[in-house]
Write a structure and sequence with these properties.
Number of domains: 2
Oligomer: single chain
CATH superfamily of the largest domain: Multidrug efflux transporter AcrB pore domain
Radius of gyration: 30 Å
Number of helices: 3
CATH architecture of the largest domain: 2-Layer Sandwich
Distance between the termini: 62 Å
CATH topology of the largest domain: Alpha-Beta Plaits
Helix content: 40-55%
CATH class of the largest domain: Alpha Beta
Shape: rod-shaped
Largest sheet: 3 strands, antiparallel
Number of strands: 3
Strand order of the largest sheet: 1-3-2
Structural class: alpha+beta
Length: 109
């Protein structure tokens, strides 16, 4: 069987050369369209909630804005971490979610 392939390849050199050039051209084209990142994106999925309350102290911002928002966001699916920062008149809550895709069933919205 292998001898027949070798004889056929030697007797049809033009066809073998055309196939080889076609495969090489296809490989060069595929290499040019290949997207390669030198540094892949490894950031996690985050959402930031920024709330402004002018004239409020950090304690008031935490009590009246940050804590109620954190309680409301506690049950979100895929939530792994919640961080908050309170400054004069500003509340920033950062929610970190898992990267794993979850299945969404119909009617869950």
């Amino acid at each position: 069987m292998i001898q027949a392939l070798i004889r056929g390849g030697l007797s049809n050199r033009i066809v073998i050369l055309a196939v080889a050039l076609g495969l090489a051209a296809f490989g060069v084209r595929a290499l040019q369209s290949l997207s390669v990142d030198a540094f892949p994106d490894v950031t996690n999925v985050q959402v930031q909630i920024a709330t402004e309350a002018q004239g409020r102290s950090p304690e008031e911002v935490e009590r009246f804005i940050t804590v109620p928002l954190e309680i409301a966001m506690t049950g979100l699916p895929g939530l792994t971490e919640m961080r908050s920062l309170n400054k004069n008149g500003l509340s920033i809550i950062t929610l970190v979610f898992t990267d794993a895709p979850r299945s969404i069933s119909r009617g869950s919205w």
